[in-house]
Amino acid sequence: MRATQALMPGVYGQENLSKMKLCILLCLCILAFSGLPASGEIVVEEFFISTPGLVQRPDISGNIVVWLDWGVGQIWGCDLTVGETFPVGSHVAGQQYVAISGNTVVWSDYRNGPVGNLDIYGYDVSTGEEFPICTDSGGQVYPDVSGDYVIWQDQYTRYWHPWLGTGIVGGQSRYAAISDNTVVWVSQNDPDTYSIYGENLTTGDRFPVCTNSHFHYFPAISGNIVVWEDTRNEPPAYYDIYGYNLSTDEEFPVCTNTSGQRHPDVSGNIVVWSDARSGNSDIYGFDLVTKSEFPICTAPETQIEPAIDGNIVVWADGRGGIRGAILVSDPPTLHSLTMQVSPGGPDTVSPAIGEHEYEQGTVVPLNANHYINCPDVYEFDHWEGNVDNASSPDTTVLMNDNQTVTAVFVPTRQCGDECHLYPVGDFDQNCYVNWAAFSIFASHWSEGGCTDPDWCGGADLNQAGEVTWGDFGIFSEHWLECTAPECD
């Protein structure tokens, strides 16, 4: 739920409406792009909807934008896929606080009574059907909608569902917002604190979102992410934007620039808000995946009340009309990593021998293991290329350009390696069964009680528990056997 403010506008007339269709159609090729990739720099493609009247409180769902002509209290909509605008509802005056989800538009309406007796009405964009949601006495304000759920505020926050009927969420509350079946709202615990709470309408579970001793206003929610205006750092900035992840129970700052931030909204991983750092109100965004902030619109005039769905942002603009932007993730810069081995041999490096692509700035871990090509065992010696530590088999390379990295191995031959295993009966481990080995064997002759793992110095070759003629027979089969490198 966003705070409201009106901006001055265009002029009524057929000419402006025709221009409006043209401006929208010019951006349809951009709207063919759907969704926002998680990597790459975000590029903003701005578009314009020319609207008559005093525009206020735009909202968006999919390709449908709705807004309030505050001067006459009329809600308008625009289907960006066909470039057509349309009035929402049959009552042409006294509408306020519009919101949309899918094909359902909801708002507060004065048609049934005196000032202050606002009711909640809805409109199905696909059928053109208008319907009442709540016409109780008193005022119902600040509606929001998600799927089949509609919520609003009177003395409490209430909800309506076509099959479940009407219910109450929380105690005395205000500024509620909904995503799927989760509602968040501001509850006044004492005169100096407005806290934010939430409730799952399916399970009835209620939970705190932010309850510190400061004021918090206008929460917005998308999936597991809640964002709001927060006064904990004032002065110098009266409002900052903070967020909370319902799945991890983690609170985080979104923007704490000292200029002050208002009107947050969120969709998926992107948060948007109005920002006063340039001296007037601009639109900024924050990517929760890359943890990066980016400007969306910093035109000299005032931009307020942004709303976002997917990769499309809309806002009320002091230049007139509704402005919007398509957020496109610029493809990241890629660099190639060529992995080589010298001398050529089996692939015992990671990444594997060959070419690999990585994004600019990626730190790639490297690993090299020795390999066997008997009679030689090739041991790692060093790396060639722009690596962090050329002498270590485990190191890294920074992908700030195309890189070629070579793992250099040297051939080695030594007794006991994979190509020169100790022969049976080589008790002194010199890869030669000779008189020295026989002397060791003879020193254990007739010895009993041989057990694992020593087996009487290894002389109990058949592991029968004692050194006897059976062991001598095995020893004699390997007499003068040599596996040392000099015997290759």
Distance between the termini: 82 Å
CATH architecture of the largest domain: 6 Propeller
Mean pLDDT: 87
* Corresponding CATH superfamily of the largest domain: Tricorn protease N-terminal domain
Give me a quick take on this structure:
This protein is mainly beta and 488 residues long. The chain has 4 helices and 35 strands.
Describe this structure in words.
β23 (282-287) and β24 form a beta hairpin. This protein has 488 residues and is mainly beta. It has 4 helices and 35 strands. It has 3 domains: 14-329, Neuraminidase, CATH 2.120.10.60; 334-412; 435-487, no CATH class. It is elongated, with a radius of gyration of 37 Å. The strands form 8 sheets. It has a 7-stranded antiparallel sheet, with no helix packed on it. The model is unreliable at 1-39 (pLDDT under 50).
How are the SSEs ordered, and which strands pair?
Elements: H1 14-26, H2 28-31, E1 42-49, E2 55-61, E3 64-69, E4 74-79, E5 84-87, E6 95-101, E7 104-109, E8 119-124, E9 129-134, E10 141-146, E11 149-153, E12 156-161, E13 165-179, E14 182-190, E15 193-200, E16 206-210, E17 216-222, E18 225-230, E19 240-245, E20 250-255, E21 261-267, E22 270-275, E23 282-287, E24 292-297, E25 303-309, E26 312-317, E27 322-329, E28 334-342, E29 349-350, E30 354-359, E31 363-368, E32 371-373, E33 376-384, E34 394-398, E35 403-412, H3 435-443, H4 469-477
Parallel strand pairs: 28-35
Antiparallel strand pairs: 1-27, 2-3, 3-4, 4-5, 6-7, 7-8, 8-9, 10-11, 11-12, 12-13, 13-14, 14-15, 15-16, 17-18, 18-19, 19-20, 21-22, 22-23, 23-24, 25-26, 26-27, 28-30, 29-31, 31-34, 32-33, 33-35
